[in-house]
Amino acid sequence: KITAKDTMKALGVPCVPGSDGGVATLEDAKRIAAEIGYPVIIKATAGGGGRGMKVAKTPADMEEAFMTARAEGKAAFGNDEVYVEKYLTTPRHIEIQVFGDGKGNALHIGERDCSLQRRHQKVIEEAPSPFVTEEMRAAMGGQSIALAEAVNYVSAGTVEFIVDADRNFYFLEMNTRLQVEHPVTELVTGLDLVEQMIRIAYGEELAFGQDDIKLEGWAMESRIYAEDPMRGFLPSIGRLVRYREPVTSAFGITKNVRMDGGINEGDEINRFYDPMIAKLVTNGDTREEAIRHMCWALDEYYIRGVANNLGFLSAVMHHPRFQRGELSTNFIADEFGERFIPDQTEHKDLDLIVAVTGAVHRIAEGKLLGLQSRNLSGNIMSKQDTHLDDKKVVVLNGTFFPIVTSDANGEIGVRVRDRNFRIETDWSPRSPIFAGTVNGEPISLQIEKEGSHYSVQHTGLTAHARVMSPLAAEMLGRMPEKEAPDTSGQLTSPMPGLLVSLEVEEGQDVKIGEPLAVIEAMKMENQLFAERDGVVAKIHLTPGDSLDVGELILELILYQ
To answer: Helix, strand or coil for residue 383?
Structure first.
């Protein structure tokens, strides 16, 4: 990365201010940070994928950022060298795909917008960028080609830029490999990038020129991660008990959905590798169409056994700011904070969720009564012995919705408050995916019976719904809420991993915000902090121990 920056500087390309090379000591890092001004970012020179990157907002943050970046670089890449750069607070991350054949031919294949990130890891990418103009594309592409020509670059490469609100761009780094997000470029250009790499490796010249590259339509990629957005996007491990990709769509959009994955139902996700499960890619003639296909596909993507980010991705896709294309690398932090709370996700039509839940319950209840309507001899009992109760109450995330259901001519009718819904579907209780039409409009969502309630996921909302009689609902409303046990004095592991270090000892006073322990998972270090003032009463583990989710590390006696 340092050599690439030096090359770009020599070509006159603006670079993000920072150190001229690797920084060996904490004192040097602090000196450079003081010169260029805070905030700064410490980066592993051999890093990638968000590993070995730590932000220091103030001088007090420098030691932790410097040491953690070095440790992650060493663990992930076998190289603990780092450098320092100015940290731009609200930029876009835009990259240019380049190709060189080693025979004097180099060109660019347009840009990708990779601004949707968390912890410096890309989450959603798209091509083209909603921010880049034709003039900007030509300028960024021209400088990227100049870099490729300067080093006689061979094969596919990606030149990455940070772009500010005024469309000023600064060279960040060059990745000399195929990128995770390369499918979006393939879908808008019609080129197979891997094929071109193989042809170049075989000694062929590029068979097309810069003027042959045309960007048509729009493509979007969502990275499907084994992580828990509700717990700060911490990685998750476990076995894929159920796994169903959205390759066959209820909406007939299979041609607009591409899956790049390498796992199957029954595979295990462990802590030694990156948490990315697969890449879900959609396209369309416009950005709006690509988003619409992505929304449908996410609602049909079904994973059980490990925590995952499907609901979070769906919430991002439906977010008004995302749909307007108003992106930055801080989008997730600004709009969702440190963690995603799915049951608080705004849903544009809760009555719709209630209606589908009521219809599903009626279907399931009808099938159950159908099974029960035969006596032990197998004879069908009279209809007067079995009936469906049309009046129900759906309790959705604690809110009571009285409903009335009916069925006729292959349709299920559901009245929710003062609205009528006509539902057509071939859903059966064995399917976790509901697909059908509501008032003639197609819909797909995930709905499963879990004990006494249904778990529903749609457009980023995760809801728990119970369907009961009006009398039962009235009784439920009188029940006192159960108080959760107080675990505020316990430090437990939020993820599976390795206990790298303990920052405290028994009997030590700690203040809110002070570090308590460091955990490593999937080659990244995560520091745990005190959430209250107190004293360390007992330490249960030692550095080097393996951790399960929820395992008790230490206990605090909290000060009142």
So the answer is: helix
Q: What is the separation, in whole angstroms, between the first and last Cα of the chain?
A: 50
Q: Give the model confidence (pLDDT) of 481-512 as tens digits.
A: 777 777 788 999 988 888 999 999 999 999 98
**Which has more confidence, 201 or 442?**
201
Choose the catalytic residue: 72, 111, 173, 300: 173
Taking the C-alpha atoms of residue 71 and residue 183, their distance in angstroms, rounded to an integer, is 32
Phi-psi region of 175 (alpha: psi -120 to 50; beta: other; left: phi over 0): beta
- The residue whose two tokens read 């591409």 is 258
Rounded to the nearest angstrom, the gap between the alpha carbon of residue 289 and the centroid of all alpha carbons in its chain is 20
Q: What percent of the chain has pLDDT over 90?
A: 57
Q: How far apart are CA 290 and CA 295, in angstroms?
A: 9
Helix then strand then coil, % of the chain, to nearest 5: 25, 35, 35
- CB distance 283 to 290 below 8 Å: yes
**Is 173 one of the annotated active-site residues of the chain?**
yes
Q: Work out the angle at residue 369's Cα, subtended by the Cα atoms of residues 363 and 373, and round it to the nearest 5 degrees.
A: 145
Angle of the 62-77 helix axis to the 26-36 helix axis, nearest 10: 120
Kindly indicate the confidence band of residue 376, based on its pLDDT and cuts at 50, 70 and 90: very low
Q: Which two tokens stand for residue 527?
A: 């520091």
Residue 520: which pLDDT band, with cuts at 50, 70 and 90? confident
The model's pLDDT over 117-159, given as tens digits with 9 standing for 90+, comes to 987 889 999 999 999 999 999 999 999 999 999 999 999 999 9
* Sole residue written with tokens 């199957």: 264
Residues in CB range of 480: below 8 A, 6 or more apart: none
DSSP string, 317-349: HT-HHHHTT---TTHHHHHHTTS--GGGS--S-
In angstroms, rounded to a whole number, what is the distance separating the alpha carbons of residues 467 and 469? 7
Give pLDDT tens digits for 360-370: 999 988 877 76
